[in-house]
Amino acid sequence: MPKMDGYTCAKRIRALPDPEKANIPIIAVTANSFKEDEEKAIAAGMNGHISKPIQINKLMEMMEKISVLLV
Question: Is the separation of the CB atoms in 13 and 21 below 8 Å?
Fold first, then answer.
């Protein structure tokens, strides 16, 4: 992203005063696939982390996992 990275963006979203907006699902989609990258995404407030190239089955699993949190 040109003006801010995804970690900063996730932190700003989580800090929004409107709880509905602040709690939207956020999944990091990145070429950075190390455990530290996943930990950094979760620490920034993201709900999950998927590395590229995207594997559809893993994306679907992640979406299912996150949908349970929304209920």
Answer: yes
